[in-house]
Prior knowledge:
This protein is an alpha/beta fold.
Amino acid sequence: MSSIRSTLRTLGAATAVLLLASACSGAGGGGGGADSVNVLMVNNPQMQDLQKLTADNFTKETGIKVNFTVLPENDVRDKISQDFSSQAGQYDVATISNYETPMYAKNGWLAAMDDFVAKDSAFDQADILTPIKQSLTAADGKVYAQPFYGESSFLMYRKDLFEAKGVTLPEKPTWQQVAEAAQKVATPDVRGICLRGQPGWGQVMAPLTTVVNTFGGTWFTKDWQAQLNAPEFKEATKFYVDLVRNHGEAGAPQAGFAECLNNMTQGKVAMWYDATVAAGLLEADDSPIKGKLGFAQAPVVKTETSGWLYTWAFGIQKASKKQEQAWKFISWASGKGYEELVGKNLGWAKVPDGKRSSTYQRAEYKQSSGSFAAAAEAAIKGAKPNDPGVQPRPAPGIQFVGIPEFTDLGTQVSQQISSAIAGAVSVDDALNSSQGLAEKVAAKYKGQ
């Protein structure tokens, strides 16, 4: 769900929109001797930077050669699943997200990292942002992956348009305040807000699920009772659908991150609720709205916070015969020294941030992202991957449910929601249909 956002992150806002449809793919070699590790990695720009910097830095320092295989997100997920589930051991290290990590750990596919961390004081595990660390910790309390970068979600808005209308927003707004602002700041040429409406478990369902959480809803109760047609889930979904239908962007049923980025940079909307990484694009040097933005925390209703949480991280295959070498690579790639290396050689705008407290204290980083850094840090620190709502959950996750079936379930439900945004079905009908899908999934887990 995050490959588009992470790819856009290192591009300027104007050029990023034009490049969205382009897919870049690459592959590295396999094999390797005793002083080498095989790494299977997603092909976004931050990882490609890592690939370019490895030989002259990590390998030169340690003597460990790294053989990269770099693939697009869908392809890499499939390949990782195949190799790790079979414990074939072809790859020692792979990029996995906080969605897969707890499940892979439960299945016995990953090596726990606690012993490595204990012996590696320079890595400074305490510096990892707590929500990120929690999201990569399994039910047994052990850490199974280390983050390369992370993100949450927050509200971005045009300060100049708000000032022109005499409208203000607090640093921590409610969704009702956002809806009122969307109505007040709208003009014939500018819609009040942009919200994802495009089908996909990582598209419309990501922001909508954060709204459901803070309205008091949940996909499943702790004992696996499906809740998609419960009053709180319906109230949240109706609010979201009404907001985007009444005050949202044109073409909302097919609008995702890319389309909202386009609408925001072109001045067609006054607000946008989405990933924190979007801020860097909106404040890029080539952005026509650079310097005109304000940032607020993810809107809430019944919860203290509501921002989502996502991270690309490195995990070690349990079957790997080179776990020591694998850890050395991960410690380097996820460490403070690597951030400094990127900052000095490629620029601080390219630093894989969102994972360490120390990043946000660096003067160089603050200078390059001063307008939104504090808000992004607060959003990530406020995320609660194990307690995102008002009731206990059966699986971790904020904008997703941490079970293998969610990719299919979330996608099917998202199609219903997009139809409701389009006006083809009512929210009640959409959620009543979705409830049956959720009940089938829940049936697999009841009694376990």
